[in-house]
Each structure stands twice: as structure tokens, then as C-alpha cells.
């Protein structure tokens, strides 16, 4: 599919003029006619859903920035003013706040789909790597946005994360000073976080263009996980439009219904109660936690008793995704035909929920030290911390055992083409008739 020839023919004088100078119309038309595997299921719709979420976040973010005041004395009040005095402000803010959660739901499903069906394997390594970069930027953008309301959890979460960055040898100190804009979290810090939070979504949008470019060149993966030779494209593929635009449109409607439930009926369900209290540096919350979608990484951070070791493990949990195409040495892409990896994948998904659960729980343990609200534990550890450690171990083990599983695993037979498993039932019915 990477050698798909353009079928676009300009029909008007303007289209011919535009096509000879900036062929953006041709790019859109070619994408709509792109040969797409005929067996794609609904797990493939989350790429389009993610683009929708990004657009919603950018538009609502720009509208909120018109009224938000990045000042420590006025930030919390400006958010309340948006909710009460700005026309439609409550709706804009709730869409933006819950949109972040919807974004991460779609992102996690999209990445797990790519992991299960082997979408990171050759020739699609760059699609996966750019996707991981988008995910990393998404995490950074979400954290920066979490700080902006300047509630109790926002402020103390910023203190925790910035001090963790400061624990990095050599470069940690200068980076910490640059982020804070001074010796402590203050007005300069909030201004920097607001500026970066406004900038990063546009950087994500640029990476999405690269992601789509790489996808257009390498072609879509499919649930069977086989490459489609040029001579079989007529049987194994369909044009993206209208077949998948309609299918994706239906999935988008269902996703928007879930989105609307949280916006209109339960808008604060995914937030934290302490963030409705103005930031007070003199009062520390009993349990400082990030938003729910970052809890697994927070559990990994907390599972390591050493402060710097926890930082390394947390960033390593994201960094290991970048080298995944070279860790998995199996010639079979889809885990549908890999019995051992299928079991390990199911355990990996369950393990992610366990990490999130552990990250949300309050550790009840003997405190031996405190580093700017980041607590180190020793000896009398509770079950959640130990469970988080075992879950962290499995998280990394899942990726590190892939080369060895590829050597020992006996895969199931893989179909020789897409059209055979898809069209075989129809052919059997015609034969009986």
C-alpha cells in the first residue's frame, strides 16, 4: 500500500491551480481513496477518535485561554469566573477537563490495539515511534494542564514533580530552576506551565501529521498481521471512503455519547475533590495523586524506594515503548496467533489496572524521610506498595521477555491472505446453494 498511486483529477480551474502549487486537496483525496484492509475491526476506529479529541482540546483550550489568568493570586478565581460569569464557560471548561480523560481512554485503547496486533513491527516502526512521542507529549501536556486551576492538588502535584526532576544528577538542578523560574513554585512557575500547556498541543498536532504521513507510506496493519502484496490489493483492500468513514463515524457517535454523559451528568467524577480548594503552600493534602490516567506511572514511581530510582523507572516505563519494535523478535505480528504472548498480553492489561489501583491508594507505612512531600518508606510496608512493586516488575518483564518468547513460542497457522478468512464463509454458502 505504500506505492498507492494518486487517482485524484482536478475538476475546476481553482483545483488545478491549487494542485500545481500546494496539493493539499490531492493529499486529502488520496487519503480517502487509500486502499485499506477489508478486515479492520472497531479497534481501528480510535485513531480517528484521537484526532477528534485533539481538535476538541485545542479549540476549547484556546477559548479558555482568553479568560484564564496565569497568576497565583488570581488563577483559581479566574477558573471560577469562567464557570459562573463567562457565557457558556461552564460547558467549555467541562468539555476541556473531561476531554483530557476521554483523550487518554482513546490513547490507551489505541496503543493496546497496536501492541496486540503487532503494529510496531516492520515496516511500521516509525509509525509506532512517532505515536510513542505523541503519547509522551500528551502526558506532559496533561500534567501542565492539571496545575493551571491552582487548587490544592494542582500546587502540591507541581511541587512533587518538579522536585523529582531536580533529583536527576547534573542536569536536574538547572532544569528545575528553569521550570520553577526561581527557587520555589511561584508566579513564574505558573506562567511557564501555562505557556507550555498552550504550546504543546500544537506540537502534538505536528507529530500527528508525521504519524499520518508514516501511516500513508507504510500502509495500515490488520488483525491478521500479514502484509498485502500489490497483486492482492484488489481482493484484500477497500477504499477508505465510504466504507471506513461510515464505520468510524458510527464509533465516533458512540464515543461522543460517553463523553456527553460525563460533561452533562457527572462532570466532576474524574477529578479530585481537593482541587476545588485554593492552593495553600502551608497545608499539604493527605495523599497527593495525579489524575487517574497517570496513576499507573505514579505507582511505578512510588514502587522504587530510592527517589532517583523511581524517576528512572517512571520515565523508563515510557522509554521502553520506543524500543519495542526491536525487543519483539517474532516473525508473527498479531498476537491472535501467538498463544503465549496472548496470555501475557491479557495479564499486562490486568496489570495496568492494578498499577492504577495501587497509585490511587494511600500508603499506610512507617515514614523515615520526606523530600518535599515525596515520601520514602522502609520496613513496615503495606500491601498496596508491595503489590505496586510486583506490578512494576511485571510491566517491565512483559517487554524484556519478548525476545525469549519469540525463540520458544510455537505460533498458530497464519492465513495466507486477508480475503480467505473474510470471504470463506460466503464462498461456502454459494457453493452449497
N-to-C terminal Cα separation, in Å?
Answer: 35 Å
Largest sheet: 2 strands, antiparallel
Q: CATH homologous superfamily - what is it? A: Cytochrome Bc1 Complex, Chain C
What's the structural domain tally? 1
Which band does the percent of strand residues land in? Answer: under 5%
Q: Give start-end ranges of low-pLDDT stretches.
A: 365-381, 425-433
Instruction: Say how many strands there are.
Output: 4
Reading off the top of the CATH hierarchy, the class is best stated as Mainly Alpha
Report the CATH topology name.
Cytochrome Bc1 Complex, Chain C
Q: Using only CA atoms, what is the Rg?
A: 24 Å
Family: Belongs to the cytochrome b family.
Domain Cytochrome b/b6 N-terminal region profile: 14-224
Protein name: Cytochrome b
Pfam families: Cytochrom_B_C, Cytochrome_B
Report on the architecture of this protein.
InterPro entries: Cyt_b/b6_C, Cyt_b/b6_C_sf, Cyt_b/b6_N, Cytb/b6-like_sf, Cytochrome_b, Cytochrome_b_C_euk/bac, Cytochrome_b_N_euk/bac, Di-haem_cyt_TM. Residues 14-224 form the Cytochrome b/b6 N-terminal region profile domain. This is Cytochrome b. A ubiquinone binds at residue 216. Heme b b562 binds at residues 96, 197. The protein is mainly alpha-helical. It has one domain (38-432): Cytochrome Bc1 Complex, Chain C, CATH 1.20.810.10. Helices cover 63% and strands 3% of the residues. The protein contains 18 helices and 4 strands. The chain has helices at 13-19, 24-32, 46-65, 75-84, 89-116, 125-147, 152-166, 172-180, 187-218, 233-236, 240-264, 295-303, 307-322, 324-327, 339-360, 383-400, 402-408, 419-432; strands spanning 35-37, 237-239, 367-371, 374-377. The strands form 2 sheets. It has a two-stranded antiparallel sheet with strand order 1-2. Helix 4 crosses helix 5 (89-116) and helix 12 packs across helix 16. The longest helix is centred in the middle third of the chain and has 32 residues, at 187-218.
Amino acid at each position: 500500500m505504500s506505492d498507492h498511486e494518486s487517482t485524484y483529477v482536478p475538476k475546476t480551474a481553482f483545483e488545478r491551480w491549487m494542485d500545481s502549487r500546494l496539493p493539499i486537496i490531492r493529499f486529502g483525496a488520496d487519503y480517502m481513496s487509500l486502499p485499506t484492509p477489508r478486515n479492520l475491526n472497531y479497534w481501528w476506529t480510535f485513531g480517528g477518535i484521537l484526532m477528534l479529541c485533539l481538535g476538541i482540546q485545542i479549540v476549547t483550550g484556546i477559548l479558555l485561554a482568553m479568560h484564564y489568568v496565569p497568576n497565583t493570586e488570581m488563577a483559581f478565581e479566574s477558573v471560577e469566573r469562567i464557570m459562573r460569569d463567562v457565557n457558556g464557560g461552564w460547558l467549555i471548561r467541562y468539555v476541556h477537563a473531561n476531554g483530557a480523560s476521554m483523550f487518554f481512554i482513546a490513547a490507551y485503547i489505541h496503543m493496546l490495539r497496536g501492541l496486540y496486533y503487532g503494529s510496531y513491527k516492520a515496516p511500521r516502526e516509525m509509525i509506532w515511534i512517532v505515536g510513542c512521542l505523541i503519547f509522551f507529549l500528551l502526558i506532559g501536556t496533561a500534567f501542565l494542564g492539571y496545575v493551571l486551576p491552582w487548587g490544592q492538588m494542582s500546587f502540591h502535584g507541581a511541587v512533587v514533580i518538579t522536585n523529582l526532576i531536580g533529583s536527576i544528577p547534573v542536569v536536574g538542578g538547572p532544569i528545575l530552576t528553569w521550570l520553577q523560574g526561581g527557587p520555589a513554585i511561584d508566579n513564574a512557575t505558573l506562567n511557564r506551565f501555562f505557556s507550555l500547556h498552550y504550546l504543546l498541543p500544537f506540537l502534538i498536532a505536528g507529530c500527528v501529521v508525521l504519524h499520518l504521513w508514516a501511516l500513508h507510506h507504510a500502509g495500515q496493519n490488520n488483525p491478521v498481521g500479514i502484509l498485502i502484496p500489490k497483486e492482492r490489493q484488489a481482493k484484500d483492500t477497500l477504499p477508505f471512503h465510504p466504507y471506513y468513514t461510515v464505520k468510524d463515524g458510527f464509533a465516533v457517535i458512540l464515543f461522543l455519547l460517553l463523553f456527553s454523559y460525563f460533561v452533562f451528568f457527572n462532570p466532576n467524577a474524574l477529578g479530585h475533590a481537593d482541587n476545588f480548594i485554593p492552593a495553600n503552600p502551608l497545608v499539604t493534602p493527605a495523599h497527593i495523586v495525579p489524575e487517574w490516567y497517570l496513576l499507573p506511572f505514579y505507582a511505578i514511581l512510588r514502587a522504587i524506594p530510592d527517589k532517583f530510582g523511581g524517576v528512572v523507572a517512571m520515565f523508563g516505563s515510557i522509554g521502553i515503548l520506543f524500543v519495542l519494535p526491536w525487543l519483539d523478535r517474532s516473525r508473527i505480528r498479531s498476537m491472535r496467533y501467538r498463544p503465549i504472548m496472548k496470555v501475557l498480553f491479557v495479564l499486562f492489561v490486568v496489570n495496568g489496572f492494578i498499577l492504577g489501583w495501587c497509585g490511587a491508594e494511600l500508603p499506610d507505612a512507617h515514614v523515615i524521610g520526606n523530600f518535599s512531600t515525596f515520601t520514602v518508606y522502609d520496613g513496615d510496608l503495606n500491601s498496596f506498595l508491595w503489590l505496586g512493586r510486583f506490578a512494576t516488575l511485571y510491566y517491565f518483564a512483559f517487554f524484556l521477555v519478548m525476545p525469549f518468547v519469540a525463540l520458544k513460542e510455537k505460533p498458530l497457522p497464519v492465513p495466507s491472505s486477508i480475503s480467505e478468512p473474510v470471504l470463506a464463509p460466503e464462498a461456502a454458502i454459494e457453493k452449497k446453494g
